[in-house]
Amino acid sequence: MWFRQDLRLTDNLAMHQACADACADSDALSDVENSKCNQGSASHDSTQKFTNNGLVRAIFFVTPRQWLLHDVAPIQIDFIQKNVLCLGQQLARLGVELDVITVASFDDVDNALINYIQQHDIDQVYASTEPEWNEVQRDKRLINAGVALTLFEQHCAIKPGIVLNQNGEMYKVFTPFSKRWKLLAQSLAFTPQALLLTDLPRRNQHASLHTHFSQANCQFNLSDDYPELPSSEQWPAGEQAASVTLHAFLNHNIAQYSQQRDFPALTGTSGLSAYLALGVISPTQCIAATLSYFPDVLHNDASPATSWINEIIWREFYRHLLVAFPRLSRGQNFNVQADNVVWRNDRDEFLAWCEGRTGYPIVDAAMRQLNKTGWMHNRLRMVVASFLTKHLLIDWRWGEKYFRQHLIDGDLAANNGGWQWSAGTGCDAQPYFRVFNPSLQSQRFDAKAGFILSYIPEISDWPLKSIHQPSAMLNQGMFALTSNSPHCATTSLADNHQGVLSDHYPAPIVDHQYARLRAIDRLSVLKRSR
Ligand code: FAD
């Protein structure tokens, strides 16, 4: 069993099948009836026999160079490591040994896997599919090289390529996609019982009772010059922790989700994204658990759980798009018309955005949340993405990369989808002329500035109105504007970087009205395609 973005045992089809096949093989070898292997529920074609002595081994590849190429955030790598440790310990209890092997990149996985197969006399490799381009190419290469790799598609609750419009094509708009998705889910008899392989996989029959797995077995051999890994301890690792998080949310928060989900000062969302991104919990488990609390959620849009299930379906939508349009994995605009946008790409402004120094408290607090915790609230992801691409006219790919490099829940499909939605270059995107007003977003979603002040305490003595609308401070001459640029006029504050209030907080990097009109003008090349 080759674990990748499916770091769990429960509801892991590939692992279940590996164990079921090995168990059947083991039974054939020892001439014991199949009924002895009664700890699991996975179905098995007993005509298929393998010769690996009934043992399952597990493997996980650490690929530091690939992670750098893919901009995987150091905090996410730390979270991967902690989850691999939990997985190894669970596997040990099943008598399955997990080998954690460090190679540089996907290219090196080929040889390492082939050597491993020879060394351990492996008949069959089981794994879950990953939808991203490089991952798909790696698997194709291995299969072409003769590796018996059996793939199970489980990163979505409904497989990509099935939710299609009347022309048999992938939807390009979310709402009809989600309607079709729900219809299919009903016809596929989505019930908690039918959805899940709830039992743990069968244990290795010939393994010693407890195969030990410790921190020492879980070393990620990263080079000395590798970025330091910030601790992910705020997210307890392991599928048990993910399940506890899910059930706590379903018990206490889901009914208020639609009212609370947009307010970053509240804990109104599930906090499951880091687990979903690594497959520590599956979308199917999330849906099955929701159905057990709200059985009608798939056909009753008034269910208290509807909004939340819709977010899970957004996740599915972006993944189905990634599979249908592989160019999305390669950093291309979904809307080819967007290739004509001339981005300003000012490096200093980008840096100010990254570091939370734009002079817009809502934007800066959000970026500081990301830099400090590795996570950012969804409402704020939309606000800062809109600000970068529309107020500053910086290519969405710069923001996408920065997010990826810092997010504990970094996920190519959701991140790309979110960025292209915000920039107006994506599928079913925010129209180019709709430019979030940071002041209004701030007033609406953090009215008492509780969230903002938790990250920007230096402005706690500002009047509330100015926290939401920092230009009010500017009008009162409260900023010490040090820039002597002739362009420092009411139309653009872009040269006012060095303007500071009490040496602490910068003046707004650009005037909202000016930036809005500039964005609409510059992005109007997107108009023709809509
Ligand atoms: P909840 O609100 O509890 O939602 C439950 C789950 O649904 C999430 O865990 C997530 O898996 C999924 N989900 C929720 N909203 C979305 C969405 N808009 N698109 C796709 N899936 C969604 N999500 C990531 O998981 N990884 C990313 O790299 C990522 N980058 C984003 C970038 C931008 C610019 C934007 C606007 C959104 C991005 N999102 C990303 C989506 C969303 O912000 C996060 O999934 C959410 O904030 C995670 O918090 P939660 O688990 O508490 O979410």
Automatic annotation (TrEMBL):
Cofactor(s), names only, from the UniProt record:
FAD; (6R)-5,10-methylene-5,6,7,8-tetrahydrofolate
Which InterPro entries does the UniProt record give? Crypto/Photolyase_FAD-like_sf, Crypto/Photolyase_N_sf, Cryptochr/Photolyase_FAD-bd, Cryptochrome/DNA_photolyase_1, DNA_photolyase_1_CS_C, DNA_photolyase_N, Rossmann-like_a/b/a_fold
Q: Among its keywords, does the record have Nucleotide-binding?
A: no
- Alphabetical UniProt keywords: Chromophore, FAD, Flavoprotein
Pfam families assigned = DNA_photolyase, FAD_binding_7
Is Flavoprotein there in the keyword field? yes
> Domain of life, per the record?
Bacteria
Span of domain Photolyase/cryptochrome alpha/beta: 1-157
What's the family?
Belongs to the DNA photolyase family. Belongs to the DNA photolyase class-1 family.
Q: What is this protein called?
A: Deoxyribodipyrimidine photo-lyase
Which species does this protein come from? Answer: Shewanella intestini
Q: What is the lineage of its organism?
A: Bacteria, Pseudomonadati, Pseudomonadota, Gammaproteobacteria, Alteromonadales
